UniProtKB/TrEMBL annotation:
Tree of life domain: Bacteria
Gene (name only): gnD
Key words of the record: Gluconate utilization, Oxidoreductase
InterPro entries linked to this entry: 6-PGluconate_DH-like_C_sf, 6DGDH_YqeC, 6PGD_dom2, 6PGDH_C, 6PGDH_NADP-bd, NAD(P)-bd_dom_sf, Pgluconate_DH
SMART domains from the UniProt entry: 6PGD (SM01350)
Protein name, as recorded: 6-phosphogluconate dehydrogenase Gnd
Family according to the record: Belongs to the 6-phosphogluconate dehydrogenase family.
Higher taxonomy: Bacteria, Bacillati, Actinomycetota, Actinomycetes, Micromonosporales
Signal peptide, first to last residue: none
Organism, as annotated: Phytohabitans aurantiacus
Ranges where the 6-phosphogluconate dehydrogenase C-terminal domain occurs: 159-290
Cited Pfam families: 6PGD, NAD_binding_2
Length: 291
């Protein structure tokens, strides 16, 4: 099957490689000419046979501009897929806008990171059933082998919604591992912290791919000395918590993990200064003076 792919970064570039390895014809465009197959979006569309399918894998901040440019180049019966980390509420307006000129739209949440080329990608799809069926060979090539790793989650928006929740869960899991790791490092009786993490990788109820990645990081840097604790968030965690508030769903762990990322960005947290001041005021507790 022929596919146009816009955005050939860490995810898009590996997706192109996996699809080509499965026998599909993928023509990619990227602003970086060293990895791009064509010089422009217009050049990409010229290379595709009608009806065309274009999969967009660009940062959320430029997704709408990219889709708008594509819509001026595509024709009735063509199809655009957004596989980036867009907010789910953006999908329905895009689909409506494109539908007015006869262009189909799907949203696909993609998980797999830099390991997807080898292991495959988990795909969470939102869109019409006919569009999902049309792209079945592409989805089959991208997903891991076997029965898992793909879902038609619902109509337009459902793919990105599922990916949002997926990433919210990821926040909580990562922070649980991180807190356990810190406690191990502070213990007086644990002498091999990386070894403990490694012992959990098989036979344990907490084994997971994330744990494997933590073990890999500790193999390279046993004390994580080369890393800063500053941790970004890309939006999905915030959106998940916002949805929890809207739907009155208790989400203690995911919310706490999101706020912990905010704490990581404060060298000297004003909130924690206030806590120290209050403890000193009501209980005379010792406090550390700022250096």
């Amino acid at each position: 099957m022929q596919l146009g792919l816009v955005g050939l970064g860490r995810m898009g570039g590996n997706m192109r490689g996996r699809l080509r390895a499965a026998g599909h014809e993928v023509i990619g465009y990227d602003r970086n000419p060293e990895v791009s197959d064509v010089e422009s979006l217009a050049g990409l569309i010229e290379r595709l046979a009608s009806p065309r399918v274009v999969w967009v894998m660009v940062p959320a901040g430029v997704t709408d501009a990219t889709i708008d440019e594509l819509s001026g180049l595509l024709s009735e019966g063509d199809l655009i897929i957004d596989g980036g980390n867009s907010r789910f509420s953006d999908d329905a307006p895009r689909a409506e806008r494109l539908g007015k000129v006869g262009i189909g739209y799907m949203d696909v949440g993609v998980s797999g990171g830099v390991w997807g080329l080898e292991n495959g990608y988990a795909l969470m799809v939102g869109g019409d059933a006919e569009h999902v069926a049309r792209l079945a060979p592409i989805f089959e090539a991208l997903k891991p082998e076997g029965q898992f790793g793909f879902v038609h989650a619902g109509p337009v928006g459902a793919g990105h919604y599922a990916k949002m929740v997926h990433n919210g869960i990821e926040y909580g899991l990562m922070h649980a591992y991180a807190e356990g790791y810190e406690l191990l490092t502070k213990s007086e009786i644990i002498t091999d912290v990386p070894g403990v993490i490694k012992s959990w990788r098989e036979g344990s109820v907490v084994e997971s791919w994330l744990l494997d990645l933590l073990d890999r990081a500790l193999d390279a840097d046993p004390e994580l000395a080369a890393l800063s604790g500053y941790t970004e968030d890309t939006g999905e965690g915030r959106w998940t918590v916002e949805e929890a508030i809207r739907l009155a769903v208790p989400m203690n762990v995911i919310a706490a993990s999101l706020f912990a990322r905010f704490v990581s960005r404060q060298d000297d947290s004003p909130a924690m200064k206030a806590v120290s001041a209050l403890r000193q005021q009501f209980g005379g507790h010792a406090v550390r003076k700022s250096s």
